[in-house]
Design a protein that fits this description.
This protein has three helices and no strands. The protein is an all-alpha fold. It has a domain of 45 residues. The longest helix has 14 residues. The chain is extended, with a radius of gyration of 18 Å.
């Protein structure tokens, strides 16, 4: 294997706990939760493109196909 730029231990250390992220106080309505998140992200000067995101979904068929290759 080629020399690792980032070690597995360094990657593990990047992981953060979300228990203090306030997820327990999110509105039940996911659209309200998203609106709150987008508003906060837009105000944050560190976040350049608050509207950039990824949505991933998987169907049962694709899941079965992926399981065959893993």
């Amino acid at each position: 294997m080629a020399e690792e730029i980032v070690t597995r231990d360094e990657i593990r250390a990047m992981r953060r706990s979300y228990s203090d992220a306030g997820l327990e106080t999110l509105p039940e309505n996911p659209f309200e939760a998203f609106a709150m998140w987008l508003k906060d992200a837009h105000k944050n000067t560190v976040i350049v493109e608050a509207n950039a995101m990824v949505l991933s979904t998987v169907t049962q068929i694709r899941r079965l196909i992926l399981e065959q290759f893993c």
